Amino acid sequence: MADESGFSKGLAGVVADATSVSQVQGEVGRLIYRGISIEELAEKSTYEECVYFSLYGKLPNQNELNKFNAEMKANRVLPKTVEAVIAAAPRSAHPMSILQAAVAAMGFDENPVNLKNEEHNIHNAIKIISQLATAVARISRERRGLAAVAPNPELSHAENFLYMLNGSKPNKEEAHIFDVALILHLDHDFNASTFAARVVASTEAKLSLSISAAIGALSGPLHGGANEKVLEMADAIGAPENAKAWVANALATKAKVMGFGHRVYRTMDPRAKVLRGMLEKLVATKKEKDTYETLRIVHDSMIEELSKTSKDYIWPNVDFWSGALYRLMDIESIDFTPIFAVSRVAGWSSHIIEMWRDNRIYRPAAKYVGPADVKYVDMKNRK
Ligand code: CMC
User: Fold this and answer.
1) Are residues 205 and 273 in the same domain?
2) According to its UniProt record, which protein family does this protein belong to (predicted)?
3) Which of 60, 147, 298, 332 is the least buried, fewest Cβ under 10 Å from its Cβ?
4) What are the pLDDT digits (tens) for 49-68?
């Protein structure tokens, strides 16, 4: 993919660093966190256990997990300064903009980075991972004109987030589905937001500022912002019976279909498979089935049509189904990408902590394509 100068647009195929946090196996559609497949973690683990696993590189024993859970819970309350930043934002602002500012504000009292003190860096990360969920719930409620709900230390991370968002405890099934969704979004090797986090952290900037940068990268529609766009697309299609014709038109006009395509996967994204399975179970218990049905037809028609072309490597990604799942939990589309951040913050933190063990600033080379010897023209002589 690189040309003779070593240049590869979008860094496609470039190996930028080594990591043992996670690996995307694009040809076979497999994703592993520290060697364990996401399917197995989704079936057997919890988000908290996966966060521990991701940060420390080993599965916790019961004592370690209890201590970790207690630390996550103890850090849920937001500092007043972060609450003030959220309160000061206009309700019209996108929650990702507010979240980026809120996470930067989480670092007002953060000490300068000490690469040698990994334990301290992990505790900083746990604080941000825990507080970020509270911030997302608070931003959403503020926008909806609702009073903030204080975290409940009786509840798990997933349950507590839904409780803070909706003001009522979720039922066991929905809490479990949400927990699995958090596991599935936790990490994805060198995706754009993780890379952004790593680039900023490689300058030895604070964790909060590196994570704030990652939130900016995640917000874009080509990355985490796609989940919100998928639901906008389903709404624009309007009804399942319009979906097939909509896909035909999208392909004919070369429009991008959100929730499809990936830089690394050349087959179905394994996260999309797990999410779809959960979505089908949840939709069977609900009256409203039109969004799912519309997306199902878009999904099937896209795969069918693309399989007849040279673009048969374009498959659905994680963002295709996640929004439909969250909508069935009565979550507004605008909150989908912040929810992605609620999970991915653990991956960003793990990458930074791993990288700081042997840090070197990211500073790639550029392929200069401008002129080499231009004379400066005085103002009076310019046209
Ligand atoms: N719908 C229609 N055509 C597509 C799509 C799509 N979703 N994705 C790629 N293509 C086409 C693209 O137009 C291009 O065609 P051509 O060669 O004729 O110009 C070809 O496939 C290669 O695409 P690309 O843009 O060079 O691929 P990339 O690796 O640079 O970008 C991507 C990957 C994910 C940004 C892109 O597939 C995309 O924009 N998808 C839609 C947004 C989306 O769902 N993003 C979520 C990504 S996964 C989870 C996450 O990160 O949040």
Assistant:
1) no
2) Belongs to the citrate synthase family.
3) 147
4) 999 999 999 999 999 999 99
Band of residue 216 on the pLDDT scale cut at 50, 70, 90: very high
Report the nearest atom of ligand 1 relative to the CA of 261.
37
Task: Measure the CA–CA gap between 342 and 96, rounded to whole angstroms.
Answer: 11
Residues 339 and 305 in one domain: no
Q: Concatenate the DSSP letters of all residues of 323-336 into one string.
A: HHHHHHTT--GGGH
Q: Contact, 128 vs 207, CB < 8 A?
A: yes
Query: Could you read off the pLDDT of 105-153 as tens digits, one per residue?
Result: 999 999 889 999 999 999 999 999 999 999 999 999 999 999 999 999 9
Q: How many domains does the chain have?
A: 2
195 and 53, same domain (yes or no): yes
Domain boundary residue among 311, 328, 345? 328
CA-only gyration radius of the chain, Å: 22
What's the CA gap between 190 and 51, in Å, rounded? 17
Q: Can 109 be counted among the known catalytic residues?
A: no
Say if 141 falls within a structural domain.
yes
Task: Find the catalytic residue in 157, 185, 188, 262.
Answer: 262
Q: Which atom of ligand 1 is nearest to the CA of 259?
A: 44
